[in-house]
Specification:
CATH topology: Rossmann fold
Number of helices: 6
Largest sheet: 5 strands, mixed
Oligomer: single chain
Number of strands: 5
Radius of gyration: 18 Å
Shape: globular
Helix content: 40-55%
Structural class: alpha/beta
CATH class: Alpha Beta
Distance between the termini: 15 Å
């Protein structure tokens, strides 16, 4: 089985080290799934692709999804864990008013990034699923009940970040080739 996982380089090396092998399961490192100046992978070379908090940052999700479909073999599976990290509900807006403000540089940088991505208004699960269907993925399933994960993370996040996390539109989407 070949797995492509979108993880930071340090996380990938940690996974390799824990497994005690040089390149486990044919993991593709960040940047290898196509794009300017990076290695292009062979068609049908992966059984599974997993991404976390990547889709909302894509400039051209249709092109990315087409590429992911190309490198997934027949019966291949895609798992996206993502969310709308732009639209803020009343809980997040209220807590933001009570919190120290972000620096002007941080706000400017955030706006600069948002001006370059497709989901500048937020990546809603239904929009992502629609684009996956357009790219030819099938058996698309959306799961927005991530409450068990949120509860497990709450211990490390603290009450403020935990409340915000619960109020955000986060989801997992699975799809097949």
């Amino acid at each position: 089985m070949s797995i492509a996982a979108q993880v930071g380089k340090h996380g990938l090396w940690a996974a390799k080290g824990r497994l005690g092998i040089d390149h486990p399961f044919g993991f593709a490192e960040r940047g290898e799934l196509g794009g300017e100046g990076v290695q292009v992978l062979t068609s049908d070379s992966f059984d599974v692709i997993v991404t976390r908090h990547l889709v909302w940052t894509l400039v051209d999700p249709a092109a990315a999804f087409a590429e992911w479909k190309r490198v997934l073999g027949p019966g291949g599976q895609l798992l996206l864990i993502d969310g709308d990290f732009v639209s803020r509900g009343w809980v997040a807006r209220t807590l933001a008013r009570l919190s120290p403000r972000r620096s002007q540089n941080m706000n400017s940088r955030h706006q600069e990034i948002l001006s370059q991505v497709h989901f500048a208004q937020g990546a809603r699960a239904e929009q992502v699923a629609f684009l996956l269907a357009e790219a030819g993925f099938t058996d698309i399933r959306i799961d927005t009940d991530l409450s068990k994960i949120h509860r497990a993370q709450a211990r490390q996040l603290g009450w403020r970040r935990s409340l915000i996390r619960h109020s955000e539109h986060r989801y997992a989407i699975s799809a097949k080739v």
